[in-house]
From TrEMBL:
It comes from Scytalopus superciliaris. The lineage of its organism: Eukaryota, Metazoa, Chordata, Craniata, Vertebrata. This is D19L3 mannosyltransferase. GO terms for molecular function: mannosyltransferase activity. It holds the Pfam family Dpy19. It is a multi-pass membrane protein. Belongs to the dpy-19 family.
Amino acid sequence: MTTVRQRRVGKGTEGAEDQPSEETNVKPDGNIPSGGKLWNILSITVGGIIAISLGLLTSVYVATLHENDLWFSNIKEVEREISFRTECGLYYSYYKQMIQAASIQQGLHGLVYDNKTESVRTINILERMNVYQEVFLSILYRILPIQQYLEPVYFYIYTLFGLQAVYVIALYVTSWLLSGTWLSGLLAACWYITNRVDTTRVEFTIPLRENWALPFFAVQIAAITYLLRTHLQPVQERLTLVVVFIATFLFSLTWQFNQFMMLIQALALFILDCLDMLPTAKVTWLYIIQISGLLLVCVLQFFNSMILGSLLISFNASVLIARTIQKNLKKGGLLNRLGKLILHVLLVLCLTLLINKCIKKILNLESDEHIFKFLKAKFGFGATRDFDANLYLCEEAFGLLPLNTFSRLSHTLLFYIYVFVLFLMAVAAGIVAFRNLRNLTLFISLISGSNQVQLMEKMEECTITLKPDAAYSLVHTVLFGCLALSTMRMKYLWTSHMCVFASFGLCSTEVWKLILKCVHLYTSQRAQVIKYSVPIITLAYISYKFWPGIMEELSELREFYDPDTVELMNWIKSNTPNTAVFAGSMQLLAGVKLCTGRTLTNHPHYEDKNLRERTKQIYQIYAKRSPEDVYGILRSFGTDYVILEDSICYERRHSRGCRLRDLLDVANGHIMDGVGENEPDLKPSLYPRFCEEIKRNLPSYTMHFTRVFQNKTFHVYKLAKHK
């Protein structure tokens, strides 16, 4: 098991907006005085320098944490590779494969016609997995004159840490655009850093797909925020759409779950468009960009059927079709519009399901069925014995967001301020949505004069408070918040935007104006003072409370320590042929491929039905099956060696019912081990557990399996080759 141990000794200012606020000194002819222009230029320059500086500091910070945690510069190459855990090691192995290939052409050929990732099968890695980033980096490393100065592994990890700079800058810019002051961006970046445990995990899961994708997603959100501003020039709008497209394309190219994240984004756009809170033309462009970006990725991934069958493409196409069918959707009174809206939603939903079902039927697509089985079981739509669904359900990362997350976020004041801003914005959004849905002309005419004026003033305040970019940010954070609450692994999509949203609310003139008017204390000067003083006080508090902790964290020195896995990998490289085929757990086999280059029977990239069925069969080594059955299964996949792990065979990490052996027992219709209830139709197995019984060296086992290696963690058996 991989562990980390203590290291042994001896080894501000505002940016210009599209429309000047009421406090801006503007001449009657509409021109800003030269002094104001100089101030804006200086403000943007200072804000930009701070953004770049914070981004670079974040990159250095996470890189230092990674080095201090593993002593990465001092450990052996095999230890560095083992530190890329589970699927991270699988992705990095393709970068290593491209680097070690005789030429770029041979490297690409090896990926397109790969027969080492899945035994007795030839698969196209570029079609099955999102590894174009590894391909690009490997080519870049080969053509740049840096081989003598920088090892391939450092070029790789420094690129990922560099993307963290892009991520932080994008969050900074988004908050700046929303609030109009770079002080908001500074606060968002500081919150991102001080809440690092809940905003990123890049320092210990470097090659994970989300660490490549989320920086581009943040850039896309920043560009959408700018696009939704009013009174953009046509050139500005076109350039922004280009940025949105490029960011969307790169996000889609680097993460297999892109379609689900963009579906949530499309839902946010759909909700706001239905409530008339966003310009329809811009929303249409965003729908088209999502579809075109995903289709371009589909082409690059050799027409990956999972992309073509995605709900995102079906949903966006349905929205565009429904909008064509239903004319005058945004006209009429309240009841009329509500009726049209309900019909529109039902039409879009039915069209989405119909189009998606047709596409999957035509393509015979089943690659993503495990996701829907997991969702069905997770939200209580019937219990399931499906092995794949239960495998996800029992993993902590796919469970509900732990309550201690909110406790950690509250220590930096982030969660408290976020909830406060969210409440205000939600109330404002409700009022604006009601106003947009209802034709208030008749309603207002029935009200007496003074009340009529007060109502109009309230409506005007809400309009000012909730601009299109702020409305999008609100719905975005709510939907991704729901996703994070239901699935812990997805919290990083929410917590980073939480930093942006909370800092925007704290630095927004409109928010403070609304609050002060509600308590009858509003003046322009008072709003401006609060707008700057509250964020500065918050920044001072964060610096005072967390700076010492960050310095202490940077001073802690540990080192990588996993002697059992290192011993296993060295033994495999020294004692098995290069063509040997290994079976075992998905997580371990990813490391076997990276460290030794041997052929695998299965691996952690689970988005393929045949692989899922194959993995379930391979995992019978931990079930109650006869040695003849297990031997037959393993040999059907060309297995030469099987690796058994005590940490799985005698697992204690999960409770009864969620241990891997329990999932296999239930899927096989067998009673689970240990004290506890079993479903009434489960029966005792006729055979003992294979991973336990094989260690007794009984004749029925030794005739098929010969132990060739063992240590405290692993047992390797060679399979006999019977005629």
